[in-house]
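Q: A reviewer asked whether we had any structural model of the full assembly, not just the individual parts. We don't, so I'm hoping you can provide one. Inputs are below.
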Amino acid sequence: MERRTFVQKLLALALPGGVFGLFLKKSTVQAAPYEAAKHYYGMGIQIDKCIGCGRCVEACKEENDVPREPFYFRTWVERYTIKKDGEVTVQNIDPRIESGLEAASERQVLRSFFVPKLCNQCDHPPCVQVCPVGATFKTTDGVVLVDEKRCIGCRYCIQACPYGARYLNPKTETADKCTFCYHRITKGLLPACVEVCPTQARIFGDVRSSASPLTRFKRMNKLHVLKPSLNTEPKVSYSNLDGEVR
Amino acid sequence: MNPANEKLFELLKQVGGYIYPNEIEVHWGILVVVYPYLTGLVAGAFILASLVKVFNIKEVQAVYRLSLLTALAFLLIAPLPLLLHLGHPERSFEIFLNPNFTSAMAMFGFVYAWYLMVVLLLEIWFTYRKDIIVWAQQEKPPMKWIHKVISLFSTDISDEASAFDRKVVKGITIIGIPSAVLLHGYVGFIFGSIKANPWWSSVLMPIVFLFSATVSGIALVIILYMVITPFRGEPIDMKCLDKMASFLFFAVIIDFSLELLDFIHRLYQSEESIKILSEMVMSKLYISLVIIQVILGMLIPLAIIVAIKLFRFDEELRKLLYFLSVILIQLGIFATRWNVVIGGQMFSKSFRGLTAYKMELTGIEGLLMTLILLIMPLVILAILIKIFPPWEKPKGSMLGEGTA
Ligand code: SF4
Ligand code: SF4
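A: Here is a predicted structure for the entire assembly that you could use as a starting point for your response.
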């Protein structure tokens, strides 16, 4: 419960569109230790390091109270299997429906890898563009959030997201998605998925900082984002991303 | 486990290929199919009325008022399916209070209010003003009072006043046509502007919506005219019917060509999504798109109308054939809306799989609700026809012809 109210406060702080938000921001900005304007967040994902253990998915569901059913995810992990004949199979790694995964015989497989997915916190987010009431908005520190007090549940944003990153939370009847664990990062903590990943496949940080692990990741790797042709300018970038990944 | 989740688990088994896990739920169901269908009928009926007024088409005068009332009846119900499908209908007023100007959906309130208040209500009021005053003088309460109030207690039935009425109506019609185009073009834009969805994303979308709206509106007015007239004990005016059928014919041809153009364009460009889209058309949408929308809803009615034009059938057969084709067209347009809305959600945005949709029988997103929403405008229309009889002239009035 405590976390809830904290998140709400932060939402009020960061609401860029609402006059009310601006008003609040002015009056509280000195008091708050966290300065949104000084940050701009992004994430890097090293495909080669992901072992498909799915702990990030678990951690996310736990941390963010995401419904447990296998069709509500703020983050999920896909397994790609590309066979010699060119056939591509993709599966969602879900520890609870593991039995559904079929293993191709090793001889047929050309290459296989895991791809963690989440909201890309697009810099040019179509979900924000379409929301009729401004319930989905971009914060000053570059995270796209949903104000669950304002969302009318029209689901337009879910249609507009090219990455399937959103779902309608059955408990609140409002749109929901990854927040980069906004309640954690504004306290200086890492997002739950990043913290729990045993291989450090996920790297979180400030895109503007010159010394963050994210900057180092960006210096050391050739990067790619998902569906670049849509010009959404994702802030989640992948190293060694395979062309088959969509 | 709650029933909604149970349903999703059930659907999970029907998924073919890979879909993003969040995509299992079809977010815009039958209610969102009904919404553009209803607004399409509004725009179409209004466009028919405007054609009659602007080009002063004598043969079709008989249905001018009926078309206006039809547009109003359907417009009153049109926002209902949208409202019902919201997760939080009680917050819907936010769209008016805090509209996000980059959102096509946020413009809904304004387009709707403009169309209802400025265009339709005004046009109907000025069209009927004089008649209402005369009715109020001749009738007994309570109708007398209803008409008095609706006339807003205006009493001037002089020739100058009705000349002014006519001028105003002409003016409104001229604003009305772009407004009707806006109303439905905008609905098309809601879908057409979603770049994430290759089935929707198309500049042609608003235009296709507009012409299919015109088709459905004219077809609806023909149905209503053919059903109501015998009930009134009047003969069906064949000249009027033939003329409306001609309008319908051209509208269907344009609609068909546009959709064909869109189809060829997609096929020729053959983008990344083409494989999954063709798979979808050949499986999930085969019946609703190929059979109902194209063959039953367009080709057969076109063939029928061409046949009527070529061979001089007698009146009875002509009526029957017209009726058959307008019913088919109506069915086809409903299928068109279905194919756009549901079709756009039947494939995964990963382009690797197809999802499934199962309509419920009861419940808010169910078949029963849909039928209620489709019947409600007809009930409202019946009431409107009672209050504003589109045919009867006030007894002994000397203003008969001009205002019709
Ligand atoms: S990934 Fe989807 S939900 Fe996230 S910011 Fe981009 S469009 Fe919005
Ligand atoms: S579902 Fe909520 S957040 Fe999404 S577009 Fe509608 S009102 Fe905005």
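A: Points you may want to mention in the reply: The longest strand of chain B covers residues 16-17. Residues 239-357 of chain B form one domain.
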